[in-house]
Each structure stands twice: as structure tokens, then as C-alpha cells.
Amino acid sequence: MAELKPEYDRTSELKAFDETKAGVKGLVDAGIKQIPRIFHHPTDELHKNSFVSNEGIRVSIPVIDLEGLKEDPRTHRKIVEQVRNASETWGFFQVVNHGIPVSVLEKMKGGVLRFFEQDLEVKKKFFTRDYSTKSVVYNSNFDLYSSPAANWRDTLFCFMAPDPPLPEDLPEVSRDIMMEYSKRVMQLGYLLFELLSEALGLQPDHLKDMDCAKGLAMLTHYYPACPQPELTLGTTKHSDNDFLTVVLQDHIGGLQVLHQNQWVDVPPTPGALVINIGDLLQLISNDAFKSVEHRVVANSAGPRLSVACFFSTVLLPNLRTYGPIKELLSEENPSKYREVTVAEYVAYYQAKGLDGTSALLHFKL
């Protein structure tokens, strides 16, 4: 008689993994050679193709140089045009000469590394799944119990604006740089929202006046080297549940954008920041700007580090509703979405988890 294999108890495995509080890094530190089944993704999700055009040229997302933006009106107009094209066709672009010194970017990456590679007992003090009362949260996979497969990454999450945590509530090893970097990203955000407003044909302050730049969440991600990168992902395919995201990635790469149904690599560019349109900006622009699905492939070279700063007011007691901007609507371009608060949108997105479908569909008229 054939031996019956013990049934796979996914819930118990998830719980056992979670209770170590050591994250994916803990598995690597334990010397595993095969990744647990909770991290296995369906084969069809794992195709790592990168888009090459008919002419054999590798397609890549636009890089926009912000040099001379304030000095020269012609340069300003050109940059607004580039932002418009990138936001309409890609939903993603990289910016260089953005005003944040390379030394600050390097210090920020150093801070991420120090946090995740410090003694586990120190890290555990930040471990929780309670986002409502804790201002600084460390864990692995925010949607661990709701997503179909776990991702190969650990995360430190905190809101840095408009009400940053007290300095003593932030991790000691990265406290100073987290505060400095978030202030600089806020300044860059103001500038980007001005350019995006103009790209929509609105006054420069329009999106800022709608509070799009008011809140900032910082997520620092740590993707350890994976012994079986062909079986899992660093981050599942998803779009972002905010207005705008600013991403600092290191030299390893792995970020990919879905463009014309093909995965396109976002190559690490020294000194550049990756900018992407969030769902809420697609909603208020009435689909003029695209919130595009993206993912991170697992790697065997790691650890890969990234810092994603999300412009979102989800934590504010903000009852403001967001729908398509009236100035963009016409008989030919009627409203495509119902009004929604940021909190309602994010609650739906979080409950759904990263399952590969857009939360925007739920709010379409």
C-alpha cells in the first residue's frame, strides 16, 4: 500500500514562520537549502522575461533629468511633457538630478542594512502585525495570512509625515537617516506633484491642495539571497494603493514593470530614484495617468535593499473623498470612478492582499 503523504497544513506553517519573528532572513541564517512551501508561487507567475522590441532593442522605462527645471522655462516645459508622456504610457519613470545628494541615498541604504542585520532580539522589539496602534512596524509580508503565496522579503514600515514618530520610537541604528531622508523625499514629492498637476493641465498647486503630498509612509525592504529564486518572488505583482511612490533601489536590481503585457526590468541607475503613479492618482486623473503593476523577482545575489516612500493620507482622520478631478471631466470624458476616502480604498486593498488584480476595478462606475 502506498504511503500517504502528510497533508500540507499551510496555516500551521505560516504561523510557525511568523512566530519566529526572524522573517525570511532567519531562514537564510538557519542555512536552509530549500525554501518552505509557503513561499512557492504558481509557475505562471514566475516568468522572468524582459521586454525586447521588434528591433531587438531592450525596452526601458523613461529617465527624466530634472536639472534646470527652475531656471529655464523651456526646460521646465520639456520636463512637464516628459512627465506627462511617462505617466500616461508607463506609469513609471526614473528621475536624476532630483536634489537629494547621493551621499544621503547611500546613508539611507546603509541604515536599512544595519536595521535588518542587527541582533534579532533588538529587531523583535519592533515586530508586530498591529498597524493601527504601532507607529513603527517590522514583520515579513503584511498580507502573510491572506495572500496565496508569501514573498521572499522582510519589511520595516512607519509613517513619517505629517506626524512622524518620536525619534526614540525609531530604530536606533537608522533613526537619523530615516528622518533626514523622509524630509528630503517630502520636498521632492512637492516638486513632483507640481509637475504632475501641470502635466494634467492644472495649476501647479492643484494636487498639493488636494492633500496628495500630505502623508508619507516609508517601507524599507530587505530581500535576502534566495537558495531557490526560481520558485518564489521578492514581491508579487501589484499596483500601489497611494497617490505616488518614490523608490530607492540598490545595485542588485529585480524590480520589473508590466508594460504591454511584458515584464520590463527597471535597471538600477546610480543616483536615480524610481517614481511610480499610484492607484489613487489614476483614480483622480480619471485614468489619464496609469498605476501600473510591478513586482520584484527573487535573487541569489542578495541581500537586495529598497526604500519605498508612499504618498498617502490613510492614517489621517481625513474624511475627504476623492473622485475624478472635475476640471478633467467633460461629456466626452465622463467620470469613471465613484468617490472614495483614502481609508476606504486602502482597507479594501489590504483585505484583498496582493492577489494580482487591481483594487481600482472595485471602485469603477
From TrEMBL:
* Homology family: Belongs to the iron/ascorbate-dependent oxidoreductase family.
Q: What is this protein called?
A: Fe2OG dioxygenase domain-containing protein
The answer, when asked if Oxidoreductase is one of the entry's keywords, is yes
Mind listing the UniProt keywords for this protein, alphabetically?
Iron, Metal-binding, Oxidoreductase
Provenance organism? Hibiscus trionum
- Residues annotated as domain Fe2OG dioxygenase: 214-314
Q: What cofactor does its activity depend on? A: Fe cation
Q: Which Gene3D superfamilies match?
A: B-lactam Antibiotic, Isopenicillin N Synthase, Chain
Which GO molecular function, any one, fits this protein according to its record? dioxygenase activity
